[in-house]
Design brief:
- With about 70 residues, the chain is of the alpha+beta class.
- Helix 2 packs across helix 3.
- The N and C termini lie far apart (about 50 Å).
């Protein structure tokens, strides 16, 4: 297996890990996946997320408060 593929695979997280990272319930996250609110994809019947995509998702939703 090439280094690029290994790096990409190590970048993937599952529903419980993503829910913990985003501080939302797994149920909420499943809903976001279903309605395509969050970047995700399925491998078999399991949802997966790229850490980079989740970082971008978080950055796009930041608000500035003064």
């Amino acid at each position: 297996m090439s280094k690029d593929i290994q790096d990409n695979l190590s970048d993937l997280i599952d529903i419980p890990q993503a829910a913990e990272l985003l501080l939302v319930s797994e149920r909420t996250l499943y809903g976001w996946c279903k309605d395509k609110t969050i970047p995700s994809f399925k491998i078999g019947n399991m949802w997966r997320f790229s850490r980079k995509d989740l970082d971008t998702f978080i950055d796009q939703r930041k608000t500035v408060s003064y």
